[in-house]
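HOLO CASE FILE
Compound: iron/sulfur cluster
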Amino acid sequence: MTGQTMFDKVWAAHEVVAETPDTPAILYIDLHLIHEVTSPQAFAMLKAQGWKVRRPERTLATMDHSTPTRSEEFFRDLPIKVDAASRQVQQLERNSQEFGVELFGLRDARRGIVHVISPELGATQPGMTIVCGDSHTSTHGAFGALAFGIGSTEVGHVFATQCLLQRKPRTFAVNVTGHLSATVTAKDLILAIIGRIGVSGGTGHVLEYRGEAIRALSMEERMTICNMSIEAGARAGMIAPDETTFAYLQGRPRAPKGAAWNDAASRWQSLPSDRDAAFDRSVDIDACTLTPMITYGTNPGMVLPIGGAIPIRTDDAVHDKALAYMGFHAGDSMLGKPVDVVFIGSCTNGRMEDLEAAARVLKGRKVARGVHLLIVPGSQQVKQAAEEAGLADIFKAAGADWRESGCSMCLGMNGDTVGAGKYSVSTSNRNFEGRQGVGARTLLASPYTAAASAIAGKVCDPRTVL
Ligand code: SF4
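Model generated. Tokens follow.
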């Protein structure tokens, strides 16, 4: 008998009822994260049935997608300008109170993007099952948790039962050997992985990122990697917990303490895949060969090394449509393409290390005329830490727009948008048509590339300024 993968171990520990050919498994959920956009319908379902939230103590609420990021709207008690956003925020306040769910509300110092604050609090832990009504819940897999996004109806199921109906995904090992060079980041690595396996390459699978290049990553870098698993079509992404994980978690407010910490840590040590575990699929990537990456099309798989040229693809209508939307041509180099907006933030790259990387590039330099550089921390705690470390002063001196935390320009629903026809270099995770506002054209890249492009006023290889 072969050993078990980490995914198999976590799945087996949470399987209440096994799947059959006709019925999915019933999976117990340890942590349910909610926000203002996908929870109203689920709360309405509970009310209609007269039900309670089954385990409110296993449910955490925050506001991020539709919250404004301008300080004026936060601290001067002005109404939120976007009406729908204002309604969602007020509704979550009422629902959380009525159902006894802990809410990190608009002016809470611990509020922020759901996938940033849960790890910050130590609520995200190895071996857990974690769900949220947001695709990028895969972020939490960086801790060795099985974490995935669910729809509004499923949010209601978890509210009512703390369980979920699920078909068991297959396993996919992404083996990353070697090491990343200093100017090549976790964002470049995950873009390269998606470029290699494609946007549907992981469909039906849980990815496990393995190998020495993964082990060398910090927790924030691991979160960047797992965050974008969904962009490869995968159900989730996972990285085995190790000393880096334990060092990150120990002492955080929701992490176990004292003897409970020792018990938890020894349990977590048994989570990594067994040496002889067999995966359904695998791919090998050599980190030493990678350079900074940038997308040129309308999905994250349309990506190339920053010095490369847009590929020529015959008889590929999707590719042709993407290039027409972007205003690019096959054979074009991405270097030197004009830039109107640069967005540094999101649950992919809105943490402290991302802001430190941006500051390394921006220190003592000025944003090019005509470019709007928007820097939005992933949480209020990240904001405070960046201000205390002097990063915000560097950003402001460079001419950047420094904001309150939130999803901001990752998606065009909170008032922060790029503008029709304009080009944005963005550290977020999706470059779909209109993702950053109607007609916006998005180039996904790392914080280094984004900051270097803001200074140059055009797409710039960060290695030339670092
Ligand atoms: S930053 Fe973007 S991807 Fe992340 S939770 Fe917000 S909207 Fe979703």
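CASE NOTES: DSSP finds 17 helices and 19 strands in the chain. The first helix runs from residue 6 to 14.
CLOSED: yes
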